[in-house]
Amino acid sequence: MEVYEAIRNRKSIRKFKSGPVPDETITKILQAGTQAPNAFNKEQWEFILIKDRTLQDEITQMRAK
């Protein structure tokens, strides 16, 4: 897909499924994320994956304060 076409046809998602995301999908997303450019490729990417909904809610509440 051409970049212009991808940008032009992008969609904003407003509703999300409540079920778990398959590990294969997570792996693909993380692999794509590591391919994104950064400042002169000097900064290593760091991703934090949280699958525990309770922990995710706690972090959200802490950040809101």
Choose one word for the global shape: extended
Task: Write down the domain tally.
Answer: 1
Taken in chain order, the helices and strands follow as HHH
Largest sheet: none
Structure write-up:
The protein is mainly alpha-helical and 65 residues long. The chain has one domain. 46% of the residues lie in helices and 0% in strands. It has three helices and no strands. It has helices at 3-8, 23-34, 53-64. The relative contact order is 0.08.
Please supply descriptive tags for the structure shown above.
65 residues; mainly alpha; extended
Concise account of the structure shown:
With 65 residues, the chain is mainly alpha-helical. Helix content is 46%, strand content 0%.
Break the fold down into its secondary structure elements and pairings.
Elements: H1 3-8, H2 23-34, H3 53-64
